[in-house]
Here is the input.
Amino acid sequence: MTFNLSIIVLVKNGGERLKMLMESLQRQKFSGSFEIIAIDSGSEDESLQILKKYNTKIVRIKPEDFHHSKTRNLGARKANGDVLVYLTQDALPINDDLLEKLVKPLKNHHVAVSYGRQIANPDSNDVNAFFYSFFYPDKKKVLVKEMANNPKKFYINHIYVSDVCSAIKKDVWKDLKFTDDVPMSEDKDFALKVLNAGYEIVYEPEATVYHSHDYSLLSLFKRRFQDGSAFSNIALEGESGFFGRGFTFLTEELKFLIRKKQYLGIPYAVIYNFIDFLGFFLGKHEKYVPGFIKN
Here is the structure.
């Protein structure tokens, strides 16, 4: 079975990283064909020139019109392929067979979506490197309908369900689509809909990209507050196991730093994880948070 792909990239001021992504896509050894669609939300750098150089179909929207779900749906509506591949502008394929490995699970008619593995950028700090190695494991996983019975637990245990690097059968997208009123974590929300519809999802660790964010403590708090807010809107039922998962993560991270003899990194790791926890916890309970703090 050979697929025709529509690679959808959301772009704003992608710079050199976007150029590296486009060059990498041109080197892909893929048995089918693919088009590249870029949704640009107001780039002011050389991004548009880069995209034009690589024969990209460009759709321009206003910055204020960008929305994680709606913009991805827009890209899908512009697509001609029978599989939608979503990549963020800062996700760099590690090997030239990313597309082949990413869509291979979709040859199984039970599988509707596949997600690739994210590995921290080579210049990332140890705390970041461990985060990605912990939550994006090297073991393949198949997600089935029963896993969607507890949305909160699903959200916490399957962080690798991410459209940073993903492939979706277009026919399935047509039936389900990203939920327009979900502000963030649209990938988790979509995955739950896919599983509840009876399809399977595959996490394919052999499809790998470099992707990570070196957040400051303030930007980490803001991002995790948003994540917590999205969690409360999407995952309304079931126990999450949030505290247990967080404790396991911190314990393993400290072991990791000790093995690497990065003792000076331990205090920072503790502070970083506390800010992470606090932001997510407050986001989960944002209805109790005063408006001036949320602003």
